[in-house]
Amino acid sequence: MTTFTKIEESEQATIQVFPSHKLSKINDNVYGGFTEHMGRCVYGGLYDPENPNKDLIDKNGFRKDVIDSFKELNVPVVRYPGGNFVATYHWIDGVGPKDQRPKRPELAWRARAESNQFGTDEFMKWCEIVGTEPYLALNFGTGTLDEALAWLEYCNSTRDTYYANLRRKNGREEPYNVKYWALGNETWGPWQVEMMTKEDYGKKAYQWAKALKLLDPTIKLILCGETGHSEWDFHTLKECIRYDLHGLGGDMTASLIDMHSIHVYTASDDPVKNAIAPRSAERAIEICAGLIDLARIQNKVPNSVPRQTICFDEWNVWDPKRAPGEDGAEETYTLSDALAVAIWLNVFVRQSKYIGMANIAQSVNVIAPLMTTQKGVIKQTIWWPLLLFCKYMRGHTIATHVSSAAYEGETEPSWIRSAIDTPWLDVSAAVGDDGVVSMVVVNAHKTNAQKVDVFGTKPSSGRVQVYSITGDSWDVTNMAGTQTVGIKESQWDGNGSYEFPNFSITMLRWTP
Pathway, per Swiss-Prot/TrEMBL (predicted)? Predict the structure, then answer.
C-alpha cells in the first residue's frame, strides 16, 4: 500500500519507502494473460499454421515468437476462450480429429465463422509449452450445466468415465488438472447472448458451483462480477458466498466461490486523463473488497473459510470507438497508454491484499502489448512496463508514502475526482524473496520533471539500478517499424534527490 499526502506545487515532493515493512503477498497470478477467439488473437496470434514463414511456426502450428514472448514475461496463468466469445462456445466442437470439427457461426464479434481448429487440447498443449496454467471460462449463454460438467470431466478426471475416456481417445492419458474455472463472462451486459438479471445469474451460478465442486472439489471457481462497485456485484456476492456444508460435502474450510471477477477498461483522448484513469480501478478494488466482507458478514461465513479474493480478469487501455471489437480491436498504443498500464500495475501491487488474479486483455494482437506480423512480433509501448513488473515486482508489497502535488483537472471517468486522489507521482514498491527492493514511479505530468527527495533507497552495494521508459512525445508508438519506446538502463547512488522525467515510468532497484 502507498499512502499519499497532497502538497502544493511549490513544495518539495518526497517519497519514503520502508523495505522491512512487508504488507501483503503479491500473488504471481496478477501477471496473468488472456486469449480469446476474437480477431487475430488465436488464429494468427497463438496459432498460425498457414504462415508462409515456416521458421516462425513449430510442429503444432504455434507461433514460436509468441511463445518466447510469453516465456519472457513468465506469465503464470492464461484465461481462455473468452470473453464474450464463450457465450456461444461449445467445447466439444473443438476436440477430436480436426477434419471432423464443425464450423460454427460466431455471434460475439460477428467477424468470421469459428473453425474450431484450435480447441481445448491445443490450448492445453500451448500452455504446457509456455509453462503457464490454464484458466477456462464456462458458457453461461447457450451452454448447459451438463456441458460444463462434461468439460470439467474431460480436463480433470482420472476415472473410467465417458468424457475422461474421450480425452484418452483424443491422445491425452493424464488429466490436465485445470484449477481455475469462470462461471460465465459479463452475463450482465446487453451485448451478451442470454443476458441475465442479477437475480437469475446469482441463482444459476450458485447451483452450477455446487455441481462442479461435487465433481471436483479441488477447483477454484470465479464468480462473474461487473465493475466491483455495482448492485450486480453485491447481489451476486451475497447470493453465492454462503456457508454451505451440504454443497461442500461437510468441508468447514472451503467455499463454493473462491474469487469474484471484475472488468474495467480505461481510455481518454487526453493523454494525462488517459494515464491517470486506472485510479478508478483502485477505488473499484477497495469497494469490491468491502462488498466481499459485507456478504460474508451478512451470511455469517466463519473465518475458517478463506476470504474470497478479486479476479480482475479483464483490464487494459481500450477505446472501442478507436479499435472496434468487431474489427479485431487492434489498438495502436502510445507512450500515454504505457503510463496508464504502469499505473494499472501499480494499482495491483498496492492492492495485493485483495487481488487473487489479474489478466491483461488481451495478450496478443487484440488490444495487446504484442502484435504479430508474417515476419515476427512487434512489442508495443505497453509491453515495456508489463515486462518490468513481470520480471521484478513480485514478492511482497511494502509500505511507501508519497508527498506530492496532484492533478486537479477533469478525469475519465468523471467520478474519480470525488472518489480518490490523483497524485502526479503514482508509486508502488515491492521486496522480492531475494531481498531486492523494486519501486516504480510514474510521473504523469506531461511537461514537468519532478525532483523528489527519496528516503529509504540507500543500497548496500552503493548503486541503485534504474530502468526508465519515456519518449519524445506522449503520442509516440512502436507500430511504424521502429522501437521508439523501450527501456533505458542507468545507475544512481541512492542518496538525496532523484529527478523523474516528465511523462515517464521509472523503476529503481536496490538491495538494502
Answer: Glycan metabolism; L-arabinan degradation
Phi, psi of 333 (to 5 degrees): -95, 145
The catalytic site residues sit at: 186, 314
C-alpha 380, offset from chain centre: 17
Domain 27-393 CATH assignment equals 3.30.540.10: no
Grid look-up 476436440 returns: 95
Closest of 75, 122, 70 to residue 96, by C-alpha = 122
Angle subtended by helix axes 120-130 and 145-156, to nearest 10: 40
- Beta-carbon contacts of 381 under 8 Å, excluding residues fewer than 6 positions away, are 333, 334, 335, 337, 338, 471, 476, 477, 478, 485
Integer Cα distance of 283 and 351 in angstroms:
10
The verdict on pTM exceeding 0.90 is: yes
Nearest to 83 by CA among 59, 107, 113: 107
Angle, CA 113 vertex, CA 112 and CA 118 arms, to 5°: 110
Nearest-angstrom CA–CA distance, 42 and 61: 11
Beta strand spans in 7-129 (E): 13-26, 33-34, 77-80, 104-105, 113-114
